[in-house]
Amino acid sequence: MAEVTVEIVGFAESECGPFPCDETRSCGLETCYPSNSLMDAISALRDELLAGYGEKVEVKTTLLDEEMPDHIRKIIEERQPPIPIVLVNGRLTSIGRVSLDLIKEEIDYALEES
């Protein structure tokens, strides 16, 4: 069982962040470039985290296209975060994009707490 769950919340056709893909790939992901697609970025993130953390980390995708889970509705009502929303062990982060290095910082913090 994973020690840390990273949940990425967004829409199937949305972008992976507020900035378009460019050759610098400041997000730290390469296999999804230049699609700027949330789904491609989540797949690339999952691959990178599996390689770096193994079974300690699970990446979960929650798409809002058809329904909004109660825990996400509550977060949106209270905090109005940008999409994509990045949760680590259910805790809202301030990341606001699929970014490998920033998400790894949150994972490392969560692993230290456990």
- Whole-Å distance between the termini? 14 Å
Query: What order do the strands of the largest sheet run in, or round the barrel if closed?
Result: 2-1-3-4
User: Which class do the helix and strand fractions yield?
Assistant: alpha+beta
What percentage of residues falls in helices of 4 or more residues? Answer: 25-40%
**Which consecutive residue ranges, at least 5 long each, have pLDDT under 50?**
none
What sequence of helices (H) and strands (E) makes up the elements?
EHEHEEH
What is the beta-strand fraction? 15-25%
* Biggest β-sheet strands, sense, barrel: 4 strands, mixed
| Gyration radius over CA | 13 Å
CATH topology name: Glutaredoxin
The shape is globular
Reading off the top of the CATH hierarchy, the class is best stated as: Alpha Beta
